[in-house]
Specification:
Blueprint: H1 2-24, H2 61-64, E1 79-83, H3 85-94, E2 106-108, E3 111-113, H4 118-121, H5 131-136, H6 143-148, E4 153-168, E5 174-191, E6 197-206, E7 222-233, H7 240-245, H8 258-320, H9 327-362, E8 370-374, H10 387-397, H11 399-420, E9 425-438, H12 447-453, E10 456-466, H13 472-539, H14 545-580, H15 583-586, E11 589-591, H16 598-613, E12 656-660, E13 694-695, E14 699-700, E15 706-708, E16 720-724
Helix pairs in contact: 3-8, 8-9, 8-11, 8-14, 10-13, 11-13, 13-14
Length: about 725
Amino acid sequence: MNHLRFLKKTAISVLFIGICFQFGCQPKQPLYLSAKGHWQNQYIGKATQIEYPNVDIPSIPEVCDAVPPFTLDNPDPTAMWDLTLEEAIHMALKNSTVIRTLSGVSFSQAGVNGVPGALLQSPASIRTVYDTALVESDPRFGQEAALAAFDAHLDASAKWIKSDTPYRSTTGGTFGIPSDGGVFDIGISKYAATGTRFSLKHSNLYNDPYSTDVQGKGLATWSNYLEGGFVHPLLRGSGLEFNRIAGPNATPGSYNGVVVARISTDQSLNDFEMATRNIVADVEKAYWSLYYAYHRLDSVRSGWRAAQQTYHQTRNHAELGGRRGNAQNLAQSENNLFTFQQQMELAQNNLFNAEQNLRYILGQAASDGRLIRPIDEPITAPMKLDWYSIRCEALFRSPELRKQRWEVKRRELELTASKNFLLPNLDLEAGYRISGAGKDLMGSDSAYNSLTGGNYTGWTVGLTASAPFGWRREQAGARNAQLRLMKEKKLLQEQELELTHQLTESFRAISLQYQQMQTTLGAYRASTAEVLAVQNAYELGETTLDLLLQAQRRKAESETAYYSSVIDYNLAIMTLHYRKGSLLEYNNVCLLEGPWPGKAYFDAQRRARERDAGHYFNYGFTLPNVVSRGAYMQHQNQQTFDSMSYDMMPMVLEGEYEETYDYSMPLPPAPSQMMVDPHSVQQPIPTPVLPRATSPGNTPVSFVAPMVAEPTSTLTPTRNRRYVQ
């Protein structure tokens, strides 16, 4: 028997070890009796494969209706689209729910290079008309989130309790005492603007009906109370100013009061204004670049025609055996013709690129068969500028400086709040309670009957205090707020210095470009006269073909250089307005708030009626320090600043500031006289059809903030802007 028992144990041990080696030392796949064998490669590579999101957003018509673009093989438009600069700016703003930008696109004399790609590469960095509303409606740091800290808060609970408590008898053994109960609470609490927390609470308690008193009678089954009170901070967290900056229950370094949230909204409005200013600047750059592309093409085409005429004359002389038709002259004139041909092809392609960039910034289709043609003429008159007026206006109107000043104000408020945290916690508490009890909840012998009798009352008044040892966090918060304020002030000062350097550059650039425009105009006139003189001398045999070809090239180059200087002069004027913050006014653009939802108007009317029916209370002793100086005047060309105090502007404009433009300087032929295809005969131009600046379905687009005046068909010959002290 012992041997059999030993063999049985040995067999069991060997079997156990074998099972361990088979299943415990290496992973095994599970065994399924109903496996069909179709599981291979069903999960391999599935987790990391590239998939397409289930999003169905319809494309806009400008995407779907785009036709093949203009190329050198397809240069003929179906119609010419004559466009003024004012109409272009109006259209760009109407079609700019997403504010496009041409940043990264280089504007050079050779043409417009590159294709905008910011929307594809970094869409999160692009401004939209929704950004300000997103900042204001942020559930963490927006104005509504800051105001929500002062909303009344409701707390309610209902609990049933059943227990059986065991007790040990003195005679031995254990017995249990069952009990039933319930707790029903409801309360409202609210923070005031001063930091005081008010509370009102009502509670009902259900007692064990099985318990009895010493006389064997049943105890009251219901009890309740109504309690109201407040906790008012006397030192830390007290006051209107602190709670409007930091909010209730704030901690050092965390400030999210109503005033701080409002500053964030104002800064987002500044960002929106700068984005609108940037798109207006981009429209003007693209518009004048297309204007220059037309004139460059016309200049090169004129040189090509002259070179073609010279080549044909030289070939005719060669066929007739004349002296001016030798092989050298023929090869030289042919080379000159191909040189102009190459330049003309490049100029034609650059014109198409410039037109596409203007279409992009206008929000139009990349190509619709029409070719945009600028019909406004650039400014060629001198500008009278007063440096001190420009400097003072820029320091007041620059949106970058205004945004930084808001940042300085934010840091000043945070420093004020951080000093409050250096005070200890000292709270005044007070409360009053009315209690009642009864057999039932309602009725003659009820808890509510006893409660309304008001016979059982109590009150509480006291002070609670607490303070940390060392004040490390609080002192660090105050020091951090001081450093942040110092940093923002220094940044503001350096920004002002940088702005004056930029204004100096623009001031100098306007003078330079005007002189360059006059110089290049003189060179253009001289080169035109030179070509006529050399052409006559060549026909009389008094000069060589080489001098004639050089004169033709110099004429084309001087004409191109003149129009380049004209465009540079206009862009210098635009840059000056850009830097001193008056570009939107210069282009008659004003930022306005779009329509509100109907519910907002209903609520505003209700609040107005409440205020009208209320009684006046003097809040003079509770008002915080001044944060804002009021609304910013966007259009100031009719405003006299002598009635404004020093607090409204950092410096008063000195003297008289004038900008006077006329069009007395003669210009070469306008682009309306030019052809597009150098190989085709000019055809009558159909009547242009202005594009719609509407959304799909021909519904007018509502651009939330920017609004401009209706476009005009004529250009005012003189623009006068005057600031008089």
